[in-house]
Amino acid sequence: MAAADWGGKADHLAGERATAQFDVDGMKVAWAGSRHAVEVADRMACLVASDPVFRKDTRTMLSRKELFKDTLKKAAHAWKRTVELHLTEEEANLLRLYIDQPGYVDLHWVMFVPAIKGQGTEEQQKKWLTMAYKFQIIGTYAQTELGHGSNVQGLETTATFDPSTDEFIMHSPTLTSSKWWPGGLGKTSTHAVVYARLITEGKDYGIHGFIMQLRSLDDHSPLPGITIGDIGGKFGSGAYNSMDNGVMRLDHVRIPRDQMLMRLAQVTREGKYVHSDVPKQLLYGTMVYVRQTIVADASRALSRAVCIAVRYGAIRKQFGSKAGGPETQVLNYKTQQSRLFPFLASAYAFRFVGQWLKWLYTDVTQKLESKDFSTLPEAHACTAGLKSVTTSATADAIEECQKLCGGHGYLNSSGLPELFAVNLPACTYEGDNVVLLLQVARFLMKTVSQVASGKQPVGTTAYMGNIQHLMQCKSVVNTVEDWLNPAAIKEVFEARALRMAVNCAQNISKAPSQEEGFSELSPDLVEAAVAHVQLIIVTKFIEKLQEDILGHGVKEQLQKLCGIYALHLIHKHLGDFLSTGCVTARQGSLANERLGKLYAQVRPNAVALVDAFDYTDHYLGSALGRYDGDVYSALYKEAWKDPLNETVVPDGYQEHLRPLLKQQLKLSRL
Ligand SMILES: Cc1cc2nc3c(=O)[nH]c(=O)nc-3n(C[C@H](O)[C@H](O)[C@H](O)COP(=O)(O)OP(=O)(O)OC[C@H]3O[C@@H](n4cnc5c(N)ncnc54)[C@H](O)[C@@H]3O)c2cc1C
After folding, report:
1. Which residue intervals define the domain Acyl-coenzyme A oxidase N-terminal in the entry (predicted)?
2. Is the CB of 428 under 6 A from ligand 1?
């Protein structure tokens, strides 16, 4: 049977949209950040959706080779359109985003260019960035090795200075020193920022960045001494397999001395290692930039999964309230709401904290320019923590959204398996999430000890200065309604974060040494760091609500979502809140009661709240999440596109299936 076209023009979700109690356009502006941002995003999303080259519906069925070729085609076409249409940087970034296929260009723009900007001298930036901006060279970021990822100081690649030729000799001395993972390294990049141990005058000065040409600009073949390839297929069928993550070995490859990134330190013509007067904290600026893009990606991925699960939940019906009566939309089940609506709230929470991080990056950049480095460690800890908490929560939520959609969520055509596979590694790259949380914890321990000696903490740790009050305060909540008070919510989150940090600091001080204590208590330290980061997200959501928010009912909906975000965390981490004495068991159960009421209030607005993300069907890429809710005909059509359905009798029937069946038949007749 051929695929039938059952799809009509009807909006199967119209009834859901009619129950919304707020202005969806106003919510789109709150989500995007400005009216301008909504317009640019719409324009770029439509540009991608209407271009046949950017089609993505078949990619989970392509072989790895075909998928990679498809990525090269899309990236080249995107660049062509960028030039033809004179797109601004903002527009070009959105164009790439809506193409929605990981590829070498991501590394080029998000890692290679910022690394040179952050670590290159003005002269180096002028030379390399000019070529990079025009795509005359394609770059990647080659730090991780087979043997070491998180422990950057353990990298083994060497860059030994040879004063007789004024060159560095780049070398991979062991198997484990092979570069391993860099995106775009395997097949595409012509250049890389390679991290290696700098050795000059017989001394090892530790890890530094070097710009290396890897492949010929004429025929793309690897340069002499460079062995390079792809590391092989990755998790999921399509997903990250569009990216050529690579392996590279270097055999005494010579590069000119001026290809060492020399903004922070240099090697002179004579081979002397000299620190420049630019402080090391400058590197934090690049990290803040990269991590704020990852937080933005996390909120986008989470909102896509939630959009799919909410729309599908409104269409899918199972069981009736009474025999023979109409069936119930699964979204009406309280268990679905308590599993799904915290993700809806988290999507908005992560979006707003991401918008704030963008501001933080501008603030950090301005401070760096005026040589004010005072808030950098705090900004670094805060972005590391936010990267960790938002990406972990997003990966967990996408997986749960698959379950929320039942069996159909497990189909590639739901879009969820691919979304999960693409976003899962964000928990690992740019810093493993647990390793990052331990860095945050280290910073918190330092802050606790500084507070004890009278120093006033800054930025997102400023609340720790209120230590006298927060260590003793009792929550003012007495009724279910009291949990609507943002000040009451913020106070319990502050008290919990501070008390967990102080408990850790006290326990570390009892250990034979600080390092032993830190190691022994690391699971508790990770939890203290999570508590601190969750406080930041709750605080930024509450601050967002204090802004001018236009549109009928928009602010009211956001207040409800903010309440859900905070109260579901209290419910989930009640053990923390109880054990630190921040809430009583009764207050915990009042929070849960309030949460149930908020779910009921959000239910009639749920579909409109995901509409406000403003995603095209193309970008969403899901039969279950279609705007018109025509789920079943979409699923049916998608099934017929599968290569297995190209023939009625399957390939392999003659060689394998037929002889087996015949033989069994013969046996049964004996
Ligand atoms: C899809 C993808 C793309 C990538 N792209 C790039 C790229 O472009 N360029 C590049 O250079 N790299 C890239 N990477 C590599 C990435 O940066 C590393 O995988 C990451 O830094 C983690 O290092 P690792 O894999 O060695 O993990 P490990 O450090 O070996 O971690 C293994 C486990 O040990 C735990 N652990 C490690 N240290 C500690 C500690 N001190 N305390 C407690 N627990 C600890 C971790 O939490 C983890 O659970 C990419 C990785 C992936 C998956």
Report:
1. 23-138
2. yes
The pLDDT tens digits for 416-442 are 999 999 999 999 999 999 999 999 999
Compute the distance between CA of residue 495 and CA of residue 338 in angstroms, rounded to an integer: 26
What is the DSSP secondary structure assignment for residue 475, as one 8-state letter?
-
Among the listed residues 265, 311, 298, 227, the one whose alpha carbon sits nearest the alpha carbon of residue 608? 311
Please give the backbone phi and psi of residue 197, each rounded to the nearest 5 degrees, phi first.
-80, 125
User: DSSP label at 205?
Assistant: E
Q: What is each CA distance from 643 to 57, 63, 70, 236, in whole angstroms?
A: 13, 11, 17, 17
Domains of the chain, start order:
25-101 (1.10.540.10), 136-278 (2.40.110.10), 284-459+479-611 (1.20.140.10)
Q: Which residue's alpha carbon is nearest to atom 43 within ligand 1?
A: 435
SS3 label, residue 247? strand
Task: Supply angle C-alpha 540, 541, 546, rounded to 5.
Answer: 90
547 CA → ligand 1 middle, Å: 38
Ligand 1 contact, 141 CB (< 6 A): yes
pLDDT for 250-284, tens place per residue? 999 999 999 999 999 999 999 999 999 887 777 77
Size of the chain in residues: 670
Quickly state the pLDDT bin for 405 (edges 50, 70, 90): very high
Q: How far is residue 103's CA from residue 188's CA, in Å, rounded to a whole number?
A: 9
Phi, psi (deg, nearest 5) at residue 160: -100, 125
Amino acid in the structure at residue 491 = E
Q: Mean pLDDT lowest for which of 7-11, 51-55, 570-574?
A: 7-11
| 527 included as an active-site residue | no
- CB of 432 within 6 A of ligand 1: the answer is yes
The answer to whether 426 and 294 have CB atoms below 8 angstroms apart is yes
Amino acid at 311: R
> Is pLDDT at 3 greater than 80 in this prediction?
no
How far are the Cα atoms of 9, 92, 189, 207, 251 from residue 228, in angstroms, in the given order? Answer: 51, 30, 11, 22, 11
From residue 603, alpha-carbon distances to 179, 303, 550, 600, 613 in Å are 50, 16, 22, 5, 17
Q: Is the C-beta atom of 549 inside 6 A of ligand 1?
A: no
Per residue in 129-159, pLDDT (tens digit) is 999 999 999 999 999 999 999 999 999 999 9
Q: Confirm if 567 and 483 have CB atoms less than 8 A apart.
A: yes
Here the ipTM equals 0.99
pLDDT value at residue 550: 95
**Angle, helix 89-99 to helix 35-49, in steps of 10 degrees:** 50
- Binding site residue list for FAD: 144, 183
Asked if 444 and 528 count as a contact pair (C-beta separation under 8 A), the reply is yes
Task: Give the Cα separation of 563 and 546 in Å (integer).
Answer: 14
Stated as kind and residue range, the H or E segment containing 325 is: none
Give me the catalytic one of 91, 145, 167, 430.
430
In this prediction, residues 190-201 reach a mean pLDDT of 98
Distance of alpha carbon 389 from the chain centroid: 10
Entry pTM: 0.95
- Work out which ligand 1 atom sits closest to the CA atom of 107: 8
User: What is the crossing angle of helices 522-545 and 433-452, to 10°?
Assistant: 80
Distance CA 211, CA 259 (A): 5
Instruction: Report the separation in Å between the CA atom of 143 and the middle of ligand 1, taken as the mean of its atom positions.
Output: 11
SS3 category, 238: coil
What rounded mean pLDDT belongs to the chain? Answer: 95
* Percent over 70 (pLDDT), the chain: 98
Is the model's pLDDT at 6 over the cut of 70? no
- Classify strands 139-142 and 191-200 as parallel, antiparallel or unpaired: parallel
Of 144, 248, 440, best ligand 1 pocket probe by most atoms within 8 Å of the beta carbon: 144
